[in-house]
Design a protein that fits this description.
single chain, 200 residues
Length: 200
């Protein structure tokens, strides 16, 4: 595995703050340059491996809250479920909620969603999150996650939209950021496995 790639992922995994629901700037500009320069041999990779490698770049940039760079890569793989999922999260993070939901529909029942649903439901059921969130639509939405058996990306987008509209208490932001963190972690784990296969 590429040493530069391992150092980048280590830096992202060790960050102390969670990704913002709607980031205002790139988390680490120098890291963004390193991601852009990653030698993944996209031009010489077999056609079947290209989507996994492009999705890896889209995911790394999004974990670094670099929305524009992530978007550029996601647009290259719009017929790939993983690319569509990264594309949807990017649009949600920029506040284009209807476009986010379109890409979530295009991603379909992505393999990362089941593990995400299990983890998010477990966290809501077994944590103190609901008692920390004021009564209202976001608290109800989080409770619904614990009852579902399948991840509903559009429903989560609705919660983020409500939070960002200013019509909900700021006390809910941390809970939503943590669910988003779980989502990013599960999608990146899936992307990483596919890229490792592509990289040999």
């Amino acid at each position: 595995m590429n040493e530069a790639l391992l150092l980048i992922t280590e830096r992202l995994e060790n960050r102390q703050s969670l990704q913002a629901l709607m980031p205002k700037r790139v988390w680490d500009a120098a890291l963004d340059e390193r991601i852009a320069e990653l030698p993944l041999a996209l031009s010489t990779a077999p056609q079947a491996d290209r989507p996994a490698l492009i999705a890896l770049k889209a995911g790394l940039h999004l974990l670094n809250e670099s929305l524009g760079a992530s978007h550029a890569y996601a647009q290259e793989i719009e017929d790939d479920a993983t690319g569509c999922y990264w594309h949807g999260i990017m649009h949600r993070m920029e506040g284009d909620f209807s476009n986010a939901n379109y890409w979530f529909r295009m991603a379909g029942a992505h393999p990362a969603m089941q593990r995400l649903q299990d983890r998010a439901a477990d966290w809501v059921r077994n944590g103190t999150v609901l008692s920390d969130v004021p009564e209202g639509a976001i608290r109800d939405g989080l409770a619904e996650i614990a009852r579902r058996t399948r991840w509903n990306a559009s429903a989560f987008t609705g919660l983020v939209q409500l939070q960002e509209s200013g019509r909900s208490a700021e006390d809910a932001r941390g809970a939503l950021e943590y669910v988003q963190h779980l989502e990013l972690a599960e999608l990146f784990a899936h992307t990483w496995q596919a890229a490792k296969h592509a990289l040999g």
